[in-house]
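#help-structures
NK: newbie question, is this the right format to request a structure? protein is Branched-chain amino acid ABC transporter permease
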Amino acid sequence: MNISLPALLSQLLLGLVNGSFYAILSLGLAVIFGLLNVINFAHGALFMLGAVLTWMAMNYLGVNYWVMLIAAPIVIGVFGILIERLLLRWIYKLDHLYGLLLTLGLTLLIEGVFRSVYGVSGLAYDTPDALTGATDLGFMMLPNYRAWVVVASLIVCFATWYVIEKTPLGALLRAGTENPRLVEAFGINVPLMITLTYGFGVALAAFAGVLAAPVYQVSPLMGQNLIIVVFAVVVIGGMGSIMGSILTGLGLGVIEGLTKVFYPEASSTVVFVIMVIVLLIRPAGLFGKEK
């Protein structure tokens, strides 16, 4: 098989872009599961909400992309806080299955509402003017927007990892999930901390949705297929592992891109094949802690 260098590099870039979305979405799932112990199946629908809200703001209100990059995560984060306060807080002490079923029901509800309004066809969202075009690297043309997606995702992912793993706030969050009574004894409002954590995890999904709006077709169903892959990423990286989600998401995106070059028929299943192999060898995931 003769493959030109530009073609190979373009597929690697495409894989890295997809891996960036996998990383930031799986990061949100890992934060929510690691700190709240909830399997948030609604993550894909909230990712979609970030993209659709961005499209609506542009078309109905004339709000530009850069404003929505900040506004959409805040709005969807507040929506997530309402979900946590009104619904999820009642099931924390129950089996994981209850959280999974509840968030699955929310997914069907949210997608159904937007599907009834906009249908299932894609909604056009143009690339911001400042990021149109491509940069000539000599050996390939690098689309500016895709480069921006990778850079923005990496900054957000590693900033989140640093806050949770290396700061006093992150230590409080981890302690609050492991021994909430002890943390409350120091005057910390643990329920509020948990609520804000869920809102932040949801905001990450919305941020990914805004980034994805010019790349994918904005559709009420855009989160469906993506979230299945993202759950596989979280399982491979290790449930609740922050760094595991980031590195695994990026790595699997690149592997998926290379598979499209050398064996396209397997590109849609390679992630799940890797998941099966990892679970057989290391059930806790590559970066998970063995119990």
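mod (FA): yep, format's fine, and the tokens are attached above. The mean pLDDT is 85.
NK: thank you!
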